[in-house]
Specification:
Shape: elongated
Strand order of the largest sheet: 1-2-3-4
Order of helices and strands: HEEEEHHHHHH
Radius of gyration: 25 Å
Number of domains: 2
Largest sheet: 4 strands, antiparallel
Strand content: 5-15%
Helix content: 40-55%
Length: 171
């Protein structure tokens, strides 16, 4: 089975976004709430009354509104999961996000992690060692940093690759 996934080019190292499914026609979330995708927009109904609409591709808006349905008691997390074909853990994650950070959290830019290990001082030390001709793994060992962190800094241009050592062979 592993060969099948390699052939398809799947990379299971990175999580993939699970997009909601909006089937044709009216789909019931439960006995009171339903939705319908029409002309690239998703319409939500409570009974026969339309209560909300958003673009089909507006993932943040979908997450906010489906979370609102749960928070307000109009649908359960399991009902949202089944109706839209998203994992239950995803629904739970967004309900938790709403409860902890509010509606604005759905539209905030993704947080970027900083290179906390690679401070300015450590970067200078790493560059000096690279300039002396030490290999990246050796620089990492000496400074207590993963070589992967140093390679990322080199690719990003924060560090210059070290000078290659020339090994002279004796005859």
């Amino acid at each position: 089975m592993g060969a099948f996934f390699r052939e398809c080019g799947n990379n299971f190292g990175m999580p993939q976004v699970q997009l909601p499914i909006f089937p044709a026609g009216v789909t019931h979330i439960n006995s009171e709430v339903a939705f319908e995708e029409r002309d690239g927009k998703v319409y939500y109904f409570n009974g026969h009354l339309p209560v909300f609409v958003h673009e089909k591709g507006a993932l943040s808006t979908f997450r906010l509104f489906s979370t609102q349905l749960v928070i307000n008691g109009n649908a359960t997390q399991a009902e949202i999961s089944r109706a839209f074909g998203v994992p239950l853990v995803t629904v739970k994650r967004y309900v938790k996000l709403y409860r902890e950070a509010g509606a604005a959290a759905f539209f905030a830019p993704a947080k970027k992690r900083s290179a906390s290990k690679l401070t300015e001082q450590v970067s200078q030390q790493a560059q000096e060692l690279l300039d002396q001709g030490l290999a990246v793994p050796e620089v990492g060992r000496q400074l207590g940093i993963l070589s992967n962190t140093l390679h990322k800094a080199i690719r990003a241009g924060r560090l210059r690759p070290g000078k290659k050592k020339i090994h002279l062979t004796r005859r």
